[in-house]
């Protein structure tokens, strides 16, 4: 498989341009291309190495990879770029909360033509985001934030509730600091009625109150993924919440970390392909989303990138072992709408709880 | 002939308009550049701080004082009052004051000894200290992060020398746990105010030396020697001769480092517990995409700036008052 990166793309692009100047213009019209954003680092590298080349082989559409820092900060970039009239990417990868936010801001996304992407019908309908103006996002891949422990220090807990036990976990856990990083969903699934509890202010305050009880056990409230990675490696924390795929990669490298699916499950989030409102590559984008929704591509991403497929394991050729590496049951679905509808209320209450103010 | 007429008569004829020469244009050009690069963004921040957040989406231009109100009493006022943001501002000042004092007070004896070395040794030290300024905050924080880590840093050393066990045996370990400086297994320095302040003063220590060096190197040593021959001890000389002579640079350096440290971000995010986070961290968490509340972030930035300005003014007044006495 040829390795396609920015450099070779530029080279082939330059060669193509040179050739076209000799042969005349029609050649330029034949080169179809698409700029696709994905989270930088290992994630984007894997896309450039495995997914985009397979897509180009299948369709002849060249892909230019664009680095996104993450989903949320990319929205700021795209918002400003859209206002300025020129966007850096045709397709962006947004997590569901960012996608909903983008649809509420309005004018940032172009509705997708689902008829042009039959393979998207394979996905669970939950992963196709419909707004009044049409489908704004189709699921790309999903990921779990799992319970992790240091197997050398503690036994595998049966429930998230075990983390509240100070006799085992005093000053030993690493949890995410952001109010919307799904710890409240874990609390809701473990001690309350799940998503229902987010319906009113009292329910949310009860969740935050329960979360406050775990504070003596938390050594690290991490804001960047790398902080938690280092702390698990260094033994500063012996458990917490962390991305399932990265935890599995770290465990495979011999670090003392073990992801666990306790009885309440782990929160599952997913990324969607979304088309910029300023893009004129709707057809190419539809072809790419169709390709990405194909069971074979979903399996390829699971194997090479470590993301969970958006369709049933039986539709893919993933083995049980491969599937367990990237997914598990049960899955906790985050209360996305509540986080957005009551944004300021939840953020301030959560920050107050953390600050003890 | 009146005075005016005489002056007019004596004045040579001059062209109606001065011809634009590069020397005349340059200051104007520079003013425009400074205006565009500094004043415009600054005005933008102030303007945004009056904007309005739309729940679940972004924000829009407006003129509301709600963000300023939120800073002092919280978003849920009048149903509920919180001083969360004032507490964060308090921690900004607390860390900056302690860390800048610590840096200047430890840099002072060092710099004093430095000025007594040979020219060659002084130059070597200064080059070394200047080059250490090229390390970014991220790099320094990463270094201290490793130095304070359980398996690779100070806690590992404390454990392997048997100090942890000894602390447990004499019962002091429980006190450390109460202070949040130990887990049941070992001592820990992350997260703690100790680690935060240590890293912050390390961050500005080279600046402290460089700021104090000119004043200390100009100290007239004969004064100290005179005091000594009159029977003053080392401490008395330091207190009555050296310190009064360098009071101004000492005060100025502390103030400068203090202002510099008010905006520290990485060290606080990594080493401070969320209960002790500062305004700088809160600003970022509001502006970034997860929240998209740039108006409230801008409000916090404006208030931080005003508070810092107030401190500088007070410092200046205090200094003038001390001078006058």
Characterise this structure.
The complex is a heterodimer of chains A (357) and B (325). Chain A has 357 residues and is α/β, with parallel strands linked by helices. Chain A has two domains: 6-143 and 270-318, Periplasmic binding protein-like II (D-Maltodextrin-Binding Protein, domain 2); 144-268 and 330-355, D-Maltodextrin-Binding Protein, domain 2, CATH 3.40.190. Helices cover 44% and strands 20% of the residues of chain A. In chain A, strand 1 (32-39), helix 3 and strand 2 form a beta-alpha-beta unit. In chain A, helix 7 packs across helix 8 (201-212) and helix 8 (201-212) packs parallel to helix 15 (343-355). Chain A starts with 5 loop residues before the first helix and ends with a helix. Chain B is mainly alpha-helical and 325 residues long. Chain B has 16 helices and two strands. The interface between A and B is large, with 46 and 44 residues.
What is the CATH level 1 assignment of the largest domain in chain B?
Mainly Alpha
Q: In CATH's first tier, which class of the largest domain in chain A applies?
A: Alpha Beta
Rg value of chain B: 27 Å
Here the CATH topology of the largest domain in chain B equals MetI-like fold
Classify the helix fraction of chain A into a percent range.
Answer: 40-55%
CA-based shape of chain B: globular
Q: Write down the CATH topology of the largest domain in chain A.
A: D-Maltodextrin-Binding Protein, domain 2
Query: H/E series of chain B, N to C?
Result: HHEEHHHHHHHHHHHHHH
Q: State the largest interface.
A: A-B, 46 and 44 residues
**Ends apart, CA distance between termini of chain B:** 54 Å
